[in-house]
Amino acid sequence: MSLMTGEEYIESIRKRKMQVYLFGKKVEDPVDDPILRPSLNSVRMTYDLAQMPEYEDLMTAVSPYTGRRVNRFTHIHQSAGDLVKKVKMQRLLGQKTAACFQRCVGMDAFNAVFSTTYETDRKYATHYHENFKQFMIYCQDNDLTVDGAMTDPKGDRSKAPHEQADPDLFLRVVERRPDGIVVRGAKAHQTGALNSHEIIIMPTISMGPDDKDYAVSFAVPMDTPGIFMIIGRQSCDTRKREGSELDVGNAEFGGVEALTIFDDVFVPNERIFLNGETEFAGMMVERFAGYHRQSYGGCKVGVGDVLIGAAAVAADYNGAARASHIKDKLIEMTHLNETLYCCGIACSAEGHPTDSGNYIIDLLLANVCKQNVTRFPYEIARLAEDIAGGLMVTAPSEADLRDEKLGAYVEKYLKGVSGVSTENRLRILRLIENLTLGTAAVGYRTESLHGAGSPQAQRIMIARQGNLQHKKELAKAIAHIKE
């Protein structure tokens, strides 16, 4: 099969019979629901751009396993160059959508599971790597979107999975059969699950021998019996149901998150990638986290480009663009954004092959990248709000602007510089609101903090990877210290 077009992707999701719930009710048509559709449009962009010749090198790659051209989101990294192109692709998509385009988690899961299954097989003579390769080729050949699911609800964070009062707070195997396993549990914060054909499950933490039932990785279609999704709330989400394009800020693109439930779901043997080999759970977690922390040096930078541009336009429309402090704030925003990009490129350029042959990023630099992402987008957002001014959050609605009586007053009193309509001024302010406080703030702000692990998780990895002993030896050598 050739690469799908965006429209073909939309129709392929429409054919899936997923179980989706929103505001306490089952959503009968998730594809066309006004709250959910913008997130689907964001994924569609990954298909649309792959059809354009000018983006072919970034958006696609030739699979070494089939010799066919595939979407880069289903590709196994073959070089440091592939890792760099991944980050550049993510920045491009962030620029095009100003939202989460949702396929990064699946791509990062692909590469983490690929190398981990290879090493698991080498020790235990299992067949997980071949299982995964066949699944990967199936996804490549059918141009599928795959969600990667790692985060469990976790319950009491002070206790291991097997110690929880409720054993289902980490997804687990509840039955092992000759033909497969049955699993129960949930995965939280699942951005993109709603718009995916398949889902890859991974453990969420390192595990000991007593957690054998929780050391599980597998893939199943999203409409497998027993799987259903409860869509999370977002700030300003119901504006999408009001019929106002202006008030939404970004009417076409967005993202949604789901609590994804696995209520005794059967997984056939050929779809299992880990099943009780606890010592490899930590490897899979660490490698996935590294890849995903690299990802944030691309996607958040692309969204940041849009936010910086919006702040600059707001300054133009407010008549403040020439003020020295405005120029300085835009410079600072650009400096912070490009620093994030530098980190994403650096950890990619320093990538190296795993034993399985695919390439992994430099883990220290990937964690430095994500540590910066936990901070810089917040400062970029603060500066954007500073430049925009209070009207960003106090402006009347589009209904007021269109009202026969009120519209004239809104036009008159909310006018900025001459030559720019009041409507356009309000549009750019609503976009800034969307990115810093509205529905897109989930992906740009809070996900920047907690996605791919909390800030402390990166600090632990930085301490582990930082090789402090080597630095001590360098200092002692320069100081001529002999012990």
How would you summarize this macromolecular structure in one to three sentences?
The protein is 49% helix and 13% strand.
Explain what this protein looks like in three dimensions.
By secondary structure, this protein is of the alpha+beta class. Helices cover 49% and strands 13% of the residues. It is built from 18 helices and 14 strands. The strands form four sheets. A six-stranded mixed beta sheet has the order 2-1-10-11-7-6, with no helix packed on it. Helix 5 runs antiparallel to helix 6, helix 8 (281-318) packs parallel to helix 11 (376-388) and helix 11 (376-388) runs antiparallel to helix 15 (422-436). It is globular. The termini are far apart.
Outline type: globular
Spans where pLDDT lies below 50 across 5 or more residues: none
Annotation, overall tally of beta strands: 14
- Helices, by number, come to 18
The helix fraction, in percent, is 40-55%
Rg of Cα set = 24 Å
- Beta percentage is 5-15%
Describe the protein's topology.
Blueprint: H1 6-14, E1 20-22, E2 25-26, H2 37-48, H3 56-59, E3 60-62, E4 69-71, H4 80-97, H5 104-124, H6 128-142, E5 146-149, E6 172-177, E7 180-187, E8 198-201, E9 216-221, E10 227-231, H7 245-248, E11 258-268, E12 272-275, H8 281-318, H9 324-349, E13 352-353, E14 359-360, H10 363-373, H11 376-388, H12 391-394, H13 398-402, H14 406-413, H15 422-436, H16 441-450, H17 455-465, H18 468-478
Helix pairs in contact: 1-2, 4-8, 4-9, 5-6, 5-8, 8-9, 8-10, 8-11, 8-15, 9-10, 9-11, 10-17, 11-15
